[in-house]
Amino acid sequence: MRETQYQNKILIPRIYECLPESVVIQNDPKKIQGIPDLLVLWRDRWAMLEVKRSADETPEPNQEYYVDMFNRMSFAAFIYPENEDEVLDALQSAFGA
Fold this sequence. Notes:
The chain has helices at 3-18, 63-73, 84-95; strands at 23-26, 38-42, 45-51, 76-79. The chain has a single domain (3-95), classed as Trna Endonuclease, Chain: A, domain 1. β2 and β3 (45-51) form a beta hairpin. α1 runs parallel beside α3 (84-95). With 97 residues, the protein is α+β, with helices and mostly antiparallel strands. The chain has a four-stranded mixed beta sheet. The protein contains three helices and four strands; from the N terminus they run αβββαβα.
């Protein structure tokens, strides 16, 4: 499965299940190299998620930098099918959902 298919058909619907009334914005990777794929807005909270096809996929340049930076600000993580449940649980916990 391609990353965009996983992101659009599986992951984003799961985010809406976990965080009803959230807004998920897909970032344009051509604007800022390495910016995480998704911005999740929920009430007065936000998170950034970098989507990968699998745990074996290597991060692109600057992705680790941005995930670390945004995680210090609010919540950010790499997410892929193998850790999806764990990351979404941590996201809900961080948001107090």
